[in-house]
Write a structure and sequence with these properties.
The complex is a heterodimer. By secondary structure, chain A is of the alpha/beta class. Chain A is 29% helix and 32% strand. Chain A is elongated, with a radius of gyration of 21 Å. Classes of the chains: A alpha/beta, B alpha+beta. Chains A and B meet through helix 1 of A and helix 13 and helix 15 of B.
């Protein structure tokens, strides 16, 4: 059986090192290599790997947050944390449902043990490994002109998805994000009002009923967001109407 | 005078009986003595305190009851007819009750009024009941006035005009009370004729004198202490961000507000006015010189110079009609270096009080001390930071070793190079101690430091340099370039999802003036945090440049969000000697 893995590290050299160490384990196959949390999210959804090797200190981001950005029902690979940072990352790593923790520079023996743990987890899942934490998000990571932009959920007007991806809409600008609507629905206070929209309840100015049991929301900044029949009922319940 | 007294004696109107006037003035004179003694006693402090204990209240009650009862004891009885109990008094009883309420509040006023009233009732006479009721009501009434004043403005408590108005109202009320208790209307009229004017005038003068004495005392004692403390507290804070024109302006305004000195000024060590406030500012303005010779003398001798305005007068070098006449000139010095001078002026007609003189000297001492403290703190911060940047960061070392170990497998030559750079950095840190380096040395140090970073990040980080070759020899504080570039990577380009580019540009902008710019393509610098603090690293570099070359040089930051951040060092072109 082939075990698919993704390597996530912002340093090309560190990726090479991991790839080199994996060469001897022929049942392991590297399906992608990523340099930041965003592309990692995308690649994990695309390839659904069995395991990831995750660096912690990465540009503008803490590698642990990657785990928070995944929706509960999404595919969750096993995680091996690899870092040159302080050893107290180890404590956090295990609390985060991480399978193993490897300090840099990686010793071969230690690496082989981690590999062995992945193999045994896959063939014989151990319930002792704690699941990913189900934490609320305090910030939504977005991409804006090649920079990482952090948006607080309370500053969002609404979220929309279209064929190009998912956009977080604020008063004056909108930002692309790799997070799914499902993730934000579960991990923030944003409320689902349409198959393609989440609304910030605190930013609703008006709820205008339309024909056919549909409705439209006017936000505080004057933007309109559609409400579908199914979600209108839930929305009204939530608003106590 | 004799003529006047004679005239008074010969007056025989029932309204203006001279004997009664003399009686009441006698009483007021004794009251005056009591007021004076009271104002000097510690009991007076109770009136300006905020919270009093039971014992304090009892003491005040005793004092004012005594004053009020004395008003009755000292009064002469005026017989209305030969009958034994048919007499009245021209007295100063209400002063005590009014003052108790006026200064101590409704409870004290009523208590004193009641006590003095009971005493008056026991004396008997035709107006015993009117006297009892009137005095009690007087205490209550002035207590109400107190409440009104406290609500509006505490300072009005010592306003003699309000005291006089209260006394007059109380006296008139007392006279009105004569009617219901007199045996006949004619008797009441006779009583009023005899007592009204003497009591109104006498009590008013008494109350006004009393309150004025207290007022003087209050202003010279309690409030002076409060304002001096207030000033001291403010001045301690104002120098927290250094001694500059803004701080000088705040200091000058505070001193003038708290002391009411006519003109207050601060000059820098070159005699230029940094801040001035008060009279004479039409021809003494910021940037001008003022009293250059006196300041020179004060600076040279490092002592306070006082021009009293009599034996010596302040000579204005600019205008002959300058109102400034007497002056106190106090140098602000730290360890023998004069950084500025504090000047206090008073005009011709105003006396320069000894208290203000002492205060001025005290303030100059306080400011000097604060300056010393802030300079020491700055030096301490710089020393601490020097130590910090000189040490190789353990994270940096761990990363470097990781990188070398990864490179070793594929490219041993490159690994060897990296180890050589690391060894160079270590050596440089061992023999640190040079205050300055040339730009060339700084760039060499930067290259060694960045070699690890460049290897780690591969093509995700680029460093570009354009340096005018003749600037390679210019000097700058050691370790000043590397922290800025490190900042640009850590807080700038490392947050980019595209390759980070850092451009270092050194050029001459004028004869003997150069700029070194460190520009990144991230634009992540946060000016909100920067307004108070440029970040420890950057403000340290700024401080060391200023320390080395002077205040006109230093570091500045320019940021276009999400486009670029440019840190610019402005330095003199100075070659290593």
């Amino acid at each position: 059986m082939t075990i698919n893995v993704i390597l996530i590290d912002d340093e090309p050299l560190a990726q090479q090192e991991l790839a080199y160490l994996l060469e001897r384990h022929t049942d392991f196959q590297i399906v992608a290599q990523c340099e930041d949390v965003f592309s990692a999210l995308r690649k994990i959804r695309e390839h659904k790997p069995d395991a990831i090797f995750l660096d912690i200190i990465m540009p503008g981001h803490d590698g642990f947050t990657l785990l928070d950005y995944m929706a509960p029902e999404e595919h969750h690979p096993h995680v091996v944390v690899v870092t040159g940072g302080e050893s107290d990352f180890a404590v956090r790593a295990y609390a985060q449902g991480v399978l193993d923790y490897l300090p840099k520079p990686i010793e071969e023996d230690r690496f082989d043990k981690a590999i062995e743990r992945i193999r045994s987890q896959i063939s014989n899942p151990d319930t002792e490994v704690s699941p990913y934490p189900d934490r609320m998000l305090e910030i939504i990571p977005c991409i804006f002109s090649n920079r990482i932009k952090f948006i607080k959920p309370e500053d969002i007007q609404y979220v929309r998805s279209d064929t190009r991806g998912i956009y977080v809409v604020c008063t004056d600008k909108e930002y692309y994000t790799e997070l799914t609507l499902a993730t934000m629905e579960v991990k923030t206070e944003l409320f689902r009002c349409h198959r393609q929209n989440l609304i910030n309840l605190a930013q609703i100015d008006e709820l205008i009923p339309l024909e056919n049991g549909l409705a439209e929301i006017k936000t505080n900044s004057g933007q309109s967001v559609p409400v579908s029949r199914h979600y209108l009922k839930l929305l009204k319940e939530r608003l106590g109407m | 005078m004799d003529f006047f007294i004679q005239k008074l004696y010969t007056l025989d109107s029932p309204w203006l009986n001279s004997e009664h006037f003399f009686s009441i003035f006698q009483q007021v004179a004794i009251l005056f003595v009591i007021a004076f003694l009271f104002s000097r006693s510690s009991a007076f402090q109770l009136l300006v305190k905020n919270s009093l204990r039971k014992r304090d209240w009892l003491l005040l009650y005793g004092i004012f009851s005594f004053i009020s009862i004395m008003g009755s004891v000292l009064a002469t009885n005026v017989p209305l007819s030969p009958e034994e109990h048919h007499w009245t008094q021209v007295d100063s009883r209400s002063i005590g009750a009014v003052l108790a309420g006026f200064l101590g509040g409704p409870v004290l006023g009523t208590a004193v009024g009641l006590t003095a009233g009971i005493y008056r009732y026991n004396l008997g006479g035709a107006t015993d009941m009117a006297g009892f009721l009137g005095t009690t009501l007087t205490g209550m009434l002035s207590g109400l006035v107190y409440l009104l004043m406290v609500r509006k403005n505490q300072a009005m408590r010592f306003d003699w005009k309000i005291a006089v108005a209260t006394v007059c109202t109380a006296e008139l009320m007392m006279k009105a009370l004569v009617f219901p208790f007199a045996s006949s209307f004619n008797e009441a009229l006779a009583l009023i004729q005899i007592t009204t004017l003497p009591s109104l005038i006498g009590n008013s003068i008494g109350a006004a004198l009393f309150v004025t004495i207290l007022n003087d005392r209050e202003r010279s004692g309690a409030s002076y202490t409060t304002s001096a403390l207030h000033m001291a507290k403010y001045l301690v804070d104002v120098l927290k961000y250094g001694f500059n024109e803004q701080a000088a302006k705040k200091i000058v305004n505070t001193i003038r507000k708290e002391t009411r000195i006519a003109t207050v000024a601060i000059t820098d060590h070159r005699n230029k006015i940094m801040a001035i406030s008060g009279i004479g500012t039409d021809h003494h303005q910021v940037g001008d010189e003022i009293a250059a010779d006196l300041i020179q003398k004060a600076i040279e001798q490092q002592r306070v110079i006082f021009i009293d305005g009599n034996a010596h007068q302040f000579q204005c070098p600019i205008a002959t009609n300058c109102p400034l006449h007497s002056a106190l000139i106090a140098p602000l010095a730290v360890d023998g270096n004069v950084l500025g001078v504090l000047l206090l002026f008073e005009p011709k007609r105003r006396f320069f009080p000894k208290l203000n003189r002492a205060l001025g000297e005290g303030v100059a001492d306080l400011l000097s001390e604060q300056m010393r403290l802030s300079i020491y703190q700055e030096q301490l911060a710089i020393a601490e930071h020097k130590l910090l940047i000189a040490q190789i960061n353990p994270h940096y070392l761990a990363n470097a070793l990781n990188t070398v170990s990864a490179v070793m497998r594929t490219d041993t030559t490159r690994a060897k190079e990296l180890l050589a750079k690391l060894a160079f950095l270590m050596r440089k840190n061992i023999k640190q101690g040079n205050e300055t380096s040339t730009l060339e040395q700084e760039l060499e140090h930067l290259d060694a430091h960045l070699s690890i970073e460049l290897t780690r990040y591969g093509d995700k980080l680029q460093i570009e340099k354009s340096i005018e070759p003749e600037l390679m020899n210019t000097i700058l504080p050691s370790f000043s370039l590397q922290p800025i570039v490190e900042n640009a990577i850590k807080h700038g380009t490392s947050r980019l999802l595209i390759p980070g580019i850092i451009h270092i540009h050194a050029y001459q902008i004028a004869n003997r003036l150069i700029r070194i710019e460190i520009k990144d393509n991230a634009g992540q610098y946060q000016p909100t945090q920067a307004s108070t603090n440029k970040g420890v690293g950057m403000s340290n570099v700024d401080g060391r440049i200023k320390e080395l070359f002077g205040g006109q040089y230093g570091l500045s930051v320019d940021c276009e969000p999400n486009q670029y951040t440019t840190v610019t060092l402005t330095l003199p072109f100075r070659k290593q000697s």
